[in-house]
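Issue 218. Parser rejects a valid record. Input:
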Amino acid sequence: MLPQKIRGTFRSQSHKPMEPIALTLGQKFEIEKFSREIDNSDDLAALKSIAKDLLVAWKQQQAASAWIVRQQSQGL
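Output the parser choked on:
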């Protein structure tokens, strides 16, 4: 869990929280697999790289989701 100060940084006051999206069983297994690999890693540089890659992917997903919402609101 991120500290409150950091968690608050990522929240947007202009957007309502999204409803959770259900993960497939396969996705849950992948999360568990990679979580264990992260837990077992002692390579700080690799963990930092993973964290940065995930941050970029998260922000790209947010941008893609916002684009879809805009397209739907414009009736396209």
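Fixed in the parser; the record now loads. Residues 22 and 28 are 10 Å apart (CA to CA).
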